[in-house]
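Figure S4 source data
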Amino acid sequence: MEDLNRSHLNTASDNQPTVIQQTEQVNTKVQERFDAELHAFITVITESSWFNALIMFTIFLNALFIALETENKIKNMSPDLFLVMDELFLAIYTIEFLLKIYAEPVGYWKRSYNLFDFLVLALSLVKAVILKFYSGKPRGVGALGVLRASRTLRTLRTVSFIRGLQVLVTALLDTIRKSVLNIVMLLLLMMFLFGIMGYYFFGYKNDSDTENWGNLGSAMLTLFTYVTVDGWTDLQHILDEKNMSGSRIYTVIFIFLGHFIFTNVFIAVIIMNISEATENYKTEQKEEREAVIRHKKEFMTRRQHSEVKQMMEKQRSGHYTNFNEMVAEYQRTLRHNDYMFLTDHATNLLWIELYLKSLDHMDNTMFSLVFKGSTTSV
């Protein structure tokens, strides 16, 4: 049975790198730098949970100040406070960027969310530079209002720190790129055809509805109102007042196709892709947990084997007077926080055979005790 466990552990160790091997690989990479100690320290900081929590708190606090700045009464009470806090937030984001670039100068640019964070930071820095050089005449800079409004993008950085939001955003973008664009193109093609027909049906003549159907652009805008089913009854009422025959049939057909079919297909595609992405995310989490448990199991098994081996060597060399002393020494090496792993005992044929034999011995012992006890009493 011990041989089977060892073969199982050897197979797992061949497939997955051990914690010790991973540590050695990281140390080898770190030792290649001349500033290995500082780089390792900065890497630990950027990957720590408290650092991410600090950035998340900064993002929420920044969003709160952006919201309060829209209130003129609060802004007029302390205008300098908002300027100081905005510069403070910008300084924190800049320090975060510099630390992450120092920790991962190449890997930082391989993540799409890091690129988005850098874009938001760059826009904020450009705004700060423009305010510095054009502080006396801000109205002369047309892009200043756009750059100020871009500060709201900082709140979207929350996605970079929450894995669940990343899964949803990625699934939504993949859905738009793969499926939704085809649905939208088909919807636009149908709107183009119905727009041309609507122009000749309801906007071609002088006494027709030229405001809503007088050209292709206005007809497409009217059909978009039909797709959203928001205010379409007013448009139909105008057509009824002008006695446009067949307008109700035209409206019902397009609403049925554009709203009920295309809108539901659009929603169904998004739900299916998000559900698939969520299942993949759960599978990845499960695999990560299993990998962590596998690494812990291998590490603890190696440690226990080495301790047992050392004690057996001490026993052979005469360090222990008897077996009980060796067992007591081994008990002192055990830890209460060690994990205990059971490797499929119920499906192990050797274990089942030993278990059944143990039950047979127990039955024989009980029978012997009961039979001898009854014979003695007689």
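Figure S5 source data
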Amino acid sequence: LQRLGRSMFSKQWYQRRVRGMPVAAKQSAVTHAKQFPITRQSIDESGLTQEDPKTLVNGSNVVVSCGESTTAAETGERKALNYPQEVVEKDGSVTVKFSNGTTKHISADGRLVTMTFFNGDTKKTYQDGRVVYQFLKDGITQTQRPDGSETTLFPTGQEETKKPDGSIHIKYPDNSTKITYSNGEEKSVYNDGTVVTVDRTGQKLILLPNGQREVHTASFKRREYPDGTTKTVFNDGRQETVHSNGRIRKKDAKGNLVSDVVLNKAGGVVVDYLNRRAA
């Protein structure tokens, strides 16, 4: 060792080699060094050479694969670390550190791989094929499943799932739901029991909890009551109310009553309330 001076087999080289290790591994390595002093024979037997300082085994049987390189080791200059750095933990899991601050953790059983990115985001890959990505800044969580579906959970509690068939299922914090189908149709169910459907032409049907229905088209909006009465409002402002007893009331765009009659089943006028006469 005296002849080698500041070469890789010297005490100074070993101290520099330990400096770059994690604290726990460093302490264990120092203890190991005191118990088993480095000699040329021990270096040769371990298989470590000046050109291949890849792996160290500390006193706790924790393997640290740093993938590091040396710069002018013969002159005693400080070593430069290359990334990624790999650490095998006591529980058998593996942690890999990258130069940009990103880390990768592989569980001992290999069923979970966790990537923690430099900005705090995390990506978890499970053995069953699920991939869960969490955006730290926005508080959003995205889950991808093997069947091709993808679920996004927002901080508000809103949950949105995209299905392989192209449909989108949304669940709101109040438990209301909305489904948008790939053909353009929609269906919404509100927490009060109201159901709204929209077909491909844009026509909307609203089913109310009290049994009433509303039909919205491009030319009118109509409400239908359980007793058969209907009220229709046209786009130009005209209104028409048809009662279950056959009475029909019509108003113009300005709201003026223009017709108020009772028709029989054949369509004939039975009573004309506007003109105060009976047929």
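Residues 1-11, 29-78 have pLDDT under 50 and may be disordered. Residues 23-35 form the longest helix (13 residues).
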